[in-house]
Design a protein that fits this description.
This protein is α/β, with parallel strands linked by helices. The chain has helices at about 45-50, 130, 135-150, 165-175, 190-195, 225-230, 255-260, 270-285, 300-310; strands spanning about 1-5, 20, 30-40, 60-65, 70, 75-80, 85, 100, 110-115, 120, 155-160, 180-185, 200-205, 215-220, 230-240, 265, 290-295, 315-320. Strands 3, 5, 6, 9, 10, 17 and 18 form a 7-stranded mixed β-sheet that branches. Strands 13-12-11-14-15-16 form a 6-stranded parallel β-sheet. Helix 6 (about 225-230) links the parallel strand 14 (about 215-220) and strand 15 (about 230-240).
Length: about 325
């Protein structure tokens, strides 16, 4: 079957390790289901995998891709939960959780296999392309907002780095849930799009906000860390799920964090129950994932180049 896969690890030029071509069909495993992939979305996780983060040389070649929507073995339309081993279904008793492509072949292929427990019905209201955006970026944003940020309707959140998959999802979900949203971006066009999606206002990166916020949704990392901390009200929460600009800020702002009793909360992906709630929320509120572009699987390199260059707003989706 045709697939996009990591053939080599290259920490400096990750796309040098990407290959497109034939790979073996998924292995049959007890308690697992094989899915015919219709759409799969790209994530920064795929670039990190090509750099060797969470993926060792001994696991190569590895088909990339965490997210997918498609058809199960009975022809039902489904979406996949990307966290393997979270429930213990389909894996050994002592196996820790992992994301697809860390231990198991991913979704940038004609077919993929996951524990049957990880397969959810896809509602008819969502296209395969839209549903494929939900399991990583949109689920991450959902958990950051509604599980870890401790905010409710009427509270104000700052979303750093409008344009990225998680940030874009956070803007849409927060606005739909009655939160007041500020967003930042270095790009004027992206700031305008953020307002169109429901942000109350959008600012240049690092710009002083008109008032402090109850929570910050942080995926950028070092470049925005200080601004995120300084933007919080006393007792506010900074929820972080990524560090695309680097993991070591110039200042950790520790004095401000302890003096104002700020909360710093790490957040990774989400649970199957949260994914089910996210899907239901999207259907109930008419929410549709923001898609930057849709490409055929054989143009996966082009999609990853868009992510690496930051030249996108929303998700890049591959169709099979």
């Amino acid at each position: 079957m045709f697939a996009a896969y990591a053939a080599r690890i290259d920490r400096d030029q990750p796309l040098n390790g990407l290959e497109l071509g034939e790979r073996p069909e998924p292995e049959k495993r007890p308690g697992w289901s094989t899915i015919t992939v219709k759409a799969a979305s790209l994530n920064h996780h795929d670039l990190w995998s090509l750099r060797g983060v969470g993926l060792g040389e001994e696991s190569l070649p590895m088909i990339l891709g965490c997210d997918a929507a498609g058809l199960d073995e009975d022809g039902n339309e489904v979406v996949l939960h990307s966290v393997i081993g979270q429930s213990g279904h389909g894996v050994g008793p002592n196996e820790p959780r992992s994301l697809l492509t860390e231990r198991y072949q991913g979704t940038f292929a004609e077919r993929a296999t996951v524990p049957t427990w990880n397969v959810l019905p896809k509602p008819k209201e969502l296209s395969f392309e839209e549903a494929a955006c939900l399991p990583t970026a949109w689920l991450t944003a959902y958990r950051m907002l509604f599980t870890n940020a401790g905010v409710g309707p009427g509270d104000t959140v700052l979303v750093q780095g409008a344009g990225g998959g998680v940030a874009t999802a956070a803007i849409v979900l927060a606005a739909a849930a009655g939160l007041r949203v500020f967003a930042t971006s270095r790009d004027e066009a992206k700031r305008k799009r953020a307002v169109e999606l429901g942000a109350e206002a959008a600012f240049d990166s690092g710009e002083r906000l008109p008032r402090r916020v109850d929570a910050v949704i942080e995926t950028v990392g070092a470049a925005t860390w200080s601004h995120s901390v300084k933007s919080l009200k006393p007792g506010g929460s900074l929820v972080i799920s990524g560090a695309t600009s680097g993991q070591t800020p110039k200042s950790g702002e520790l004095n401000r964090i302890f003096f104002l009793e700020l909360k710093v909360v790490g957040s990774t992906m989400g649970t199957k129950d949260e994914l089910e709630s996210l899907v239901s929320f999207c259907v109930a509120k008419g929410i549709r994932p923001v898609i930057d572009s849709v490409l055929p699987l054989d143009r996966a390199r082009e999609g990853l180049e868009k992510i690496a260059g930051g030249d996108l707003f929303g998700k890049v989706v591959l169709t099979v």
